[in-house]
Design goal:
The complex is a heterodimer of chains A (374) and B (254). Chain A is of the alpha/beta class and 374 residues long. Chain A folds into 2 domains: 95 residues, STAS domain (Transcription Regulator spoIIAA); 235 residues, no CATH class. Chain A has 13 helices and 5 strands. In chain A, strands 1, 2, 3, 4 and 5 form a 5-stranded mixed beta sheet that branches. In chain A, helix 1 links the parallel strand 2 and strand 3. Chain A is elongated. Chain B has 254 residues and is of the alpha/beta class. Chain B folds into 2 domains: 133 residues, Rossmann fold; 72 residues, no CATH class. Chain B has 9 helices and 9 strands. A 6-stranded mixed beta sheet of chain B has the order 5-6-7-3-8-9, with helices on both faces. Chain B has a 3-stranded antiparallel beta sheet with strand order 2-1-4, covered by helices on one side. Chain B is globular. Classes of the chains: A alpha/beta (374), B alpha/beta (254). At the A-B interface, helix 1, helix 2, helix 3 and helix 13 of A face helix 2, helix 3 and helix 5 of B.
């Protein structure tokens, strides 16, 4: 039997006869039948609802009928339910009518691309403010931490250095080795056209030591350890562990952020230095495979090309890149509010910001070195 | 589906992980339209038993039969019952309305104004009408549990499983939640299975109960909780219902 709301009207008195299944599976049909009946009831002063022929009813059907009756009564009609042999249906409709509350209209969020861009733009000032506020609080925390070393969780430092430094060694080494190979291949293919293959070792040294070594290492650490730090602290924040630290008198900045920043700042220069050595091996492999240059000649040329300036120009920026990664990851973690979804979104933001910051800081150093002639 | 058959029949169930047996020889029946509570001390396996009843785990031996559904762990498609997890388990990135709309839009063809009307009615039913657009992080623990119940009711189930619904709530919120459970059972005719150890809730809502004990690895008592409180001679059951501890009694006596 299909859903129907039959309207028998006599003057300003109407009788609604409901037939068929008024349940969740037929909710759309019930909604349409109710809407159609409502249109035919305008001007009625008394509406009797006959539930006798109702096949079955559940909460969904009862809600739609209850709202129909609410609207009729709002329109100055009196609604009466003739429950007949169906007192359960009458009770169910009454339950949803009694429990109705006044509330704002609900909607499911549907953000268009334009709305999303607008929402992101609107968040920018707040995010910049958060970042500046966090940096300021860290700057204040550092002298306090130096004055009271016991306020720092030194016990976690070896574990953190292991996680951020030693455990990252295979992936940063592989990345630097491959970058060395790439520079070697590029150098041979481009410089070889001018018969200048002998300058490939110098190209590898300058390009990798000064720029690519610190950048590649920092990007890998930002992606790997930045995500780890951000999600760890974000999870601590949403599970109220950070609040627990505060309640016990610990400053989360000193207890959590300082050791993590120290661990990153200690690890990244070492990883970069090891990565530099492996890039030289990568360059050697590429050159030895596709040119006549002997490994001995390559190594000699490399030794001649390496200068303290190139090595230091690269290594000096690594602590700054490391600090940017640590501060951004920890800061984003501490800014987390909400539940599991917030942890994910903060971690993503932390990685994106950390990688972007690493590139910007590296570019600023290059510009500065060029200005002072190093 | 028959009105005379029990809604749930548990027959010689054995549960556990690997070689480890958590509980065995579990037998009970739950009548349609009643409120049934699974009781026991912390760590005795109440919530684990619930996981088997809702089909998240497969029993080592024995059988769970839900009338009209069969064995719950073999169920696929539209969930045949509603479940409230201990924490509410609302999706934190969605508003309450979106949380409630999710099962509706996933499993039915209901959309648009009709869907929102049903969502709003369920929120009204649990007293959360004005909070439809709040995120779970913005409401209290008791409200999260009520929202969890509303979400569990979205597909109009005739069977509801509630894991510790009133644990951690203030007395007023707890009694409001208990009243809501009574309303759901009496007015909507829903069979409600509750895992709890909250005595006031048990005495207020439960029609029937089983008491589990860790050492016995199974059921040590069953019946009307009020009768068990007044008449049981089993020490664990007596202590459970009278909130007494043999260790404290021994210390005070000594």
């Amino acid at each position: 039997m299909s859903v129907a709301v039959q309207v028998n009207r006599e003057g300003d008195h109407a009788r609604l006869v409901l037939t068929g299944p008024f349940d969740l599976a037929h909710a759309m049909a019930v909604a349409r039948a109710a809407q159609s009946a409502e249109g035919r009831l305008s001007g009625c002063r008394l509406v009797d609802v006959d539930l006798t022929h109702l096949d079955r009813i559940d909460g969904a059907g009862a809600v739609l009928l209850a709202r129909l009756l609410d609207r009729l009564e709002d329109g100055q009609s009196a609604a009466r339910i003739a429950e007949g042999n169906n007192p359960e249906a009458a009770r169910l409709i009454a339950l949803y009518r009694e429990r109705r509350t006044e509330h704002p209209v609900t909607r499911i969020r549907t953000m268009t691309s334009l709305t999303r861009i607008g929402a992101l733009a609107a968040q920018l000032p707040g995010k910049a403010n958060d970042a500046l506020d966090f940096t300021g609080r860290c700057a204040v925390a550092l002298p306090k931490a130096a004055a009271t070393p016991s306020s720092i969780d030194w016990h976690s430092l070896p574990r953190l250095i292991q996680g951020i430094g030693a455990d990252a060694l295979p992936v940063t080494s592989a990345a630097n080795l491959l970058v060395g190979v790439i520079i070697g291949f590029l150098g041979v293919s481009q410089l070889g056209r001018f018969g200048a293959v002998a300058y490939v070792p110098q190209l590898v040294v300058v390009a990798h030591f000064r720029e690519l070594g610190p950048l590649v290492t920092a990007i890998v650490v930002a992606g790997r350890s930045g995500a780890g730090l951000a999600s760890e602290i974000a999870t601590m924040k949403v599970s109220e562990e950070v609040d627990a630290l505060r309640s016990m008198g610990f400053d989360p900045l000193r207890w959590l952020v300082v050791p993590r920043c120290i661990a990153v700042a200690a690890s990244v220069p070492l990883l970069t230095w090891i990565g530099d050595l492996l890039a030289l091996v990568g360059g050697l492999m590429a050159t030895a495979v596709i040119t006549q240059m002997t490994p001995r000649a390559y190594i000699r040329a490399t030794m001649d090309a390496i200068t303290a300036g190139d090595l230091l120009a690269g290594l000096v920026k690594t602590p700054f890149l490391a600090l940017a990664i640590g501060l951004i990851a920890c800061g984003q973690g501490l800014l987390t509010r909400g539940g599991a979804a917030a942890v994910g979104s903060r971690t993503t933001t932390a990685v994106v910001l950390a990688i972007f910051s690493v590139i910007v800081i590296s570019a600023l150093f290059t510009f500065f070195f060029a200005l002072i002639g190093i | 589906m028959s009105l005379s058959r029990p809604h749930i029949t548990v027959d010689d169930l054995r549960i556990g992980w690997g070689e480890r047996v958590l509980m065995q020889h579990i037998n009970f029946q739950i009548e349609r339209g009643t409120i049934f509570t699974i009781l026991g001390g912390s760590g005795c396996g109440k919530s684990s038993l619930l996981r088997y009843l809702i089909g998240l785990e497969q029993p080592q031996a024995g059988r769970i039969d839900i009338d009209g559904i069969g064995e719950p762990h073999r169920c696929e498609g539209v969930p045949p019952f509603g479940v409230l997890f201990q924490s509410g388990a609302l999706f934190s990135s969605m508003t309450l309305a979106e949380n409630l709309a999710l099962p509706l839009t996933t499993w039915t063809a209901i959309r648009g104004a009709t869907a929102m009307q049903l969502v709003q009615a369920k929120l009204d039913l649990v007293g959360l009408g004005p909070f439809a657009e709040h995120l779970p992080g913005e409401i209290s623990g008791g409200m999260k549990k009520r929202a969890g119940i509303a979400r569990a009711l979205m597909l109009e189930p005739d069977l509801l499983f509630l894991d510790e619904p009133s644990a951690g709530l203030d007395p007023i919120s707890a009694v409001e939640l208990d009243q809501l459970i009574l309303t759901l059972s009496r007015d909507l005719g829903i069979t409600v299975v509750i895992v709890t150890h909250e005595l006031p809730s048990i005495f207020l809502v439960a029609d029937h109960c089983i008491v589990l004990e860790k050492e016995a690895k199974g059921i040590v008592a069953r019946g009307d909780p009020r009768n068990l409180r007044d008449e049981s001679v089993i020490p664990f059951v007596h202590n459970f219902f009278t909130r007494s501890s043999p260790r404290i009694s021994a210390k005070q006596g000594g």
